[in-house]
Amino acid sequence: MQSPIVRMPSVYLPHGGGPWPFVDLAHFVDRHECKALADYLAAIPEQLPMRPRALVVVSAHWEAPVPTVMTSPHPPILYDYYGFPPEAYRVTWPAPGQPELAARVRALLEAEGISAAEDLRRGYDHGTFVPLKLTFPEADVPTVQLSLQEGLDPARHVAIGRALAPLRAEGILLVGSGMSFHNLREYKAARAQSFVFDEWLQRVVAQDPHDRDADLVRWSAAPAARRAHPREEHLLPLMVMAGAAGSDRGRVMYSGTFGGARICAVHFGA
User: Fold this and answer.
1) What is the pLDDT of residues 21-62, one digit of tens each?
2) What's the rounded Cα separation, in Å, for the pair 117 and 119?
3) Is the CB of residue 181 less than 8 Å from the CB of residue 228?
4) Nearest residue to 180 (alpha-carbon basis) of 239, 136, 128
5) Which of 263, 257, 252, 256 is nearest to 9 (CA)?
6) Which helix H or strand E contains 103, and what residues bound it?
7) 244: how many CB neighbours lie within 10 A of its CB?
8) 181-203 b/e with 16+ CB inside 10 Å = b?
9) CA atoms 21, 142, 60, 166: torsion sign
10) Where are the beta strands (DSSP E) in 23-106?
11) Does domain 10-268 bear CATH number 3.30.457.10?
């Protein structure tokens, strides 16, 4: 007998740096930091109300003129990192695509007046295959990746999330893959500021959804905001997940450090 479909959460998770779980990054990330983040990612299925029918992933590593969905039934791996040892380019995660779900995503966006497009050739970037190889190691959950929209307008991405909200009642897990701190150019100098920004972020995601969304749209006025995110692409998947949350408050499900910088994961409707 098929299990009834229940409403899924929307999840904003940190995907770490490059292929971090599969190579030695001891010069940059403490092994205890890696284990804590890996343990959180591996435990996500236990925190879900049911096994997801499919995933829709918004990764910080794909921007397009309009929100664009992958339509390949068998997406390749896009090794969009460089300077790592050879084993980093042998990591696989052969989860199937689902063209029907991609079409549903595009239809939901366009029904809300958001122009959308599709890409048959695009593969899973490391914002998708690296963390989800830990979460769904069997690679047996159909997955569709959705791009950010160029211009990186936070209100636009909240609206994108609102358009996708109906998928949660269809057994689809919405995943926003980014990092709540992402300043690679000044990493050592700015990581102390990550604690300041993280304190603000954790408070905001837990508050009343109307206030939450308004504060997230104005995120750049937060304490240490531009030290944490000189460019906001790693924060915007959170905006999409908050938009999809509707009236559900956020809950911080992981809080730790990565390379000494504070990062967190937020689940809405957990």
Assistant:
1) 999 887 788 999 999 999 999 999 999 999 999 999 999 999
2) 7
3) yes
4) 239
5) 252
6) helix 99-111
7) 28
8) bbbeeebeebbebbebbbebbbe
9) negative
10) 54-64, 68-70
11) no
- The number of beta carbons lying within 10 Å of the beta carbon of residue 138 is 9
Report d(CA 167, CA 165) in Å as an integer.
5
Query: Using one digit for the tens of pLDDT, what is the confidence trace for 179-209?
Result: 999 999 999 899 999 999 999 999 999 999 9
The sign of the CA dihedral 253, 184, 38, 7 is positive
Q: How far is CA 248 from the centre of its chain?
A: 18
pLDDT in tens, 149-172: 999 999 999 999 999 999 999 999
User: For residues 75 and 125, is the Cβ–Cβ distance under 8 A?
Assistant: no
Residue with tokens 């590593």: 61
Q: Give yes or no for a contact between 38 and 128, defined as CB atoms under 8 angstroms apart.
A: no
pLDDT tops 80 at residue 270:
no
Number of C-alpha atoms within 13 angstroms, CB side, residue 75?
30
Among 179, 169, 154, CA closest to 242: 154
Output phi, psi for 175, to 5 deg: -125, 125
The number of residues making up the chain comes to: 270
CB-based contact 148:63 (threshold 8 Å): yes
pTM of the prediction? Answer: 0.97
Q: Which residue type sits at 18?
A: G
